[in-house]
Amino acid sequence: MAKGKKSIFFCQNCGHEENKWLGQCPMCKEWNTFVEESISISKSSTVKQVKEAEVVALKQIETDHEERIHTQIHELDRVLGGGIVPGSLILVGGDPGIGKSTLLLQVCQRLCEDKKEVLYISGEESLKQIKLRANRMGEFKEDMYLLCETNLEVIRNIIQKRKPEIVVIDSIQTMYSEEVASAPGSVSQVRESTNVFMQLAKGLGISIFIVGHVTKEGTVAGPRVLEHMVDTVLYFEGDRHASYRILRGVKNRFGSTNEIGVFEMRQNGLVEVENPSEFMLSGKPEHASGSVVACSMEGTRPILLEIQALVCNSNFGMPRRTAAGTDYNRVNLLMAVLEKRAGIHLANCDAYVNIAGGIKMNEPAIDLGIVLALVSSYKNKPIDEKTIVFGEVGLSGEVRAVSMPEQRVAEAKKLGFETCIIPEVSKDMVKGIKGIKVVGVKTINDAIQLI
């Protein structure tokens, strides 16, 4: 069998292949993402016989209800859709230092307590480093098996021999196969490694967690290359300098993709935040203008958050607009609606909008909260602290309906709010909730008059 080498260009963003370098990827439309990699090619004079596949009718397939594996971390189980599905391949992505390894080590700790056999494979840290982190988390009641290896063939043989129930790969960018000529972390190596782990997960019924991260230089293929191959994609978000972390599901073949889990980073590891709304509203200023509480939905969970706005006269010819935690273009659009529909002149004012706590929200339901925060700061009139608002604002100044208003109002009542300003069309859906005053508004002018 004669072997040779061939150069192929891969897109680092989506993994698309081309025989020559292109400035723009024809698949994902990103610029300057192609990198050259050499691959081995083989020519054989013999013709391989193709194995015939059997066609099966859908009615003939029998399915058994399998119990999910609970991690005993309720926030993670919520994002996964109720627990770990046996035989699933789960990708956990995020920036370096965000806490991916810490979270998965805590998952291993809980699963070991539940008498599950866990194998933790690290390609970045030594055994002593993992032991030091484990000591900060507390005692491991049962044995957890560790392996420091990056050779894919060695890892495959060990998994096939031991057949553990849970495997953690930290990280996929360090794994390499001797059959692929490119360097570890390249698109070819990441594809080959993920394909091997997918075959192991499906063939042996092992649940495998894969850690995927992007370096600070951005030179390696990010987790997006893996998203099409795995069953579940979880992103760990948050500022490394802040205490909170958000685990967000962006792909899930066994559950919802809209759920989030909220954690707080402490010295002994990550701690679940059971009530994110109360956590986000802690430290809210009293009797301050430009501050209003809005409600956003993340999956089935309502989250109350504080929207802050600061409007002041501009000292320059061009007013400055800044948005932190929400869409900058959306803030400009809402300010234009205030100019046209409410007669509030903001053309000569600087405007700064911030969602307190560093959380990022882009749901249209917070539009009314942004509008009222801007008006409150512009007129220097504080909004009642026991008032919460939510609603989508249209270009005509109308306040449109949002999804699941009952859950939003019920969460506001639970946290002690007394008045809730909602769209008029959603008022009939919350009639059954007592103990909180619900006010419906049709336009932003109605809402401005109320405050």
Tell me briefly what this model is:
This protein is α/β, with parallel strands linked by helices and 451 residues long. It has ten helices and 21 strands.
What does the model show?
The protein is α/β, with parallel strands linked by helices and 451 residues long. The chain has 3 domains: 42 residues; 208 residues, Rossmann fold; 172 residues, Ribosomal Protein S5, domain 2, CATH 3.30.230.10. 25% of the residues lie in helices and 27% in strands. The protein has 10 helices and 21 strands. The protein has a 9-stranded mixed sheet with strand order 6-5-7-8-4-9-10-11-12. A 7-stranded mixed sheet has the order 15-16-14-13-17-20-21. A hairpin with a 6-residue loop joins strand 9 and strand 10. The longest helix has 18 residues. It is globular, with a radius of gyration of 26 Å. About 1% of the residues have low confidence.
End-to-end Cα distance:
80 Å
The second-level CATH architecture of the largest domain is 3-Layer(aba) Sandwich
CATH fold description of the largest domain? Rossmann fold
Largest sheet: 9 strands, mixed
How big a fraction of the residues is strand?
25-35%
Fraction of residues in helices? 10-25%
Strands, total number: 21
